[in-house]
Amino acid sequence: MGLKLVNRHQRGGGGVPTRWVSFFCIFSFFLGVLVVNRLWGVLDPVKLDEENSSVKTRQKRELLPSINCEKKETSTRAGEIFDQVSETHDVIMTLEKTISSLEMQLASARAAKASNQGVPAMATKLRNKQFKDRQKVFFVMGIMTAFSSRKRRDSIRQTWMPQGEDLKKLENQKGIVMRFVIGHSATPGGVLDRAIDAEEEQHHDFLRLVHVEGYHELSSKTQIYFSTAVAQWDADYYVKVDDDVHVNPGMLGLTLARHRSKPRIYMGCMKSGPVLAQKSIKYHEPEYWKFGVEGNKYFRHATGQLYVVSKDLATYISVNRYANEDVSLGSWFIGLDVEHIDDRTLCCGTPPDCEQKAQAGNPCAASFDWSCSGICKSVERMEEVHQRCGEDDGAVWSTKF
């Protein structure tokens, strides 16, 4: 068809008619206008601080595609039109990625603005300074725990988590922060809170959240964890892990270091399980009907026992609420420029599985039993798993990240 068009117009002197060039230029112009409108439509009417304004101005200039709309010479051929269409497609893909990146940056800017609303100017400046002065670390590992899980925490302290001065040394020398993550009881200052206070006094390994503990509040707890961790540490990665999982910190760090050059990653053992519609099931989905007919599956997401998100994504999560924890986390990332990394070293089985893999030269970063969504009877078995599948005590210190 393109060839016929050229032949028809070659009678009048050859080349592509001017109207095709004009059409392409007009299309490109309106494309740029639509993209800019889409992006700046999400902004709040209130101006952000000077730093955010300069970022927006610079990136707005970068958004608009550079199109050469000069009149083409009469010798232009039909193939050049198709080349330009291909280039336009590439521009669209680039713009989509740019929009995705800017949406996350804007979410971060909104978070900063929202946290300063109603705060005196001097206090706002102090808070912003504290945010900029956050300790720079490699990764923060939040170990989700509960008031009733003292024995689980002790089993981890006695195996794969350094204690006392070694925990501080790990943070200062290797940039690895490990904390048990817990909120408060429904009765502030009660016996449960006092027990955690006493445990913290002894071990100094808790991250306390402004959050009321409870099974039905797990999703909000995870979101608050990311918000709190992002506000306290400037990390490359933020890890969420359950307190009945065995972790090899050195192997985990080595795994994360391989992806350090990538801007936005979501790492874990990816799955796509069925939507659970029955109310009697533990992980019942109240709004299962939104996923379509019975038998549908969830979108791809990392299993909840352990997953990792990079800095930009952790910031994005911190200012957007979601439900059903690991499943909904996957839904947030569908429309963003995020690389999903399915890494099976993060979900090895307990012995003999992890032991055989270690002997074959493929050590695991984390181990648990799928049947129990963690190590079955973890308090009794954590030591055994550590003895058979754990890395050497010096591995985390000798590994270069």
TrEMBL record:
Gene3D superfamilies noted in UniProt: 3.90.550.50
Ranges of residues in domain DUF4094: 18-111
Top-rank EC class of the record's enzyme: transferase
Subcellular location: Golgi apparatus membrane
GO CC annotations on file: Golgi membrane
Cofactor(s), by name: Mn(2+)
GO molecular function, one term: galactosyltransferase activity
InterPro entries attached to this UniProt entry: DUF4094, Glyco_trans_31
Pathway membership: Protein modification; protein glycosylation
Similarity comment text for this entry: Belongs to the glycosyltransferase 31 family.
Name of the protein: Hexosyltransferase
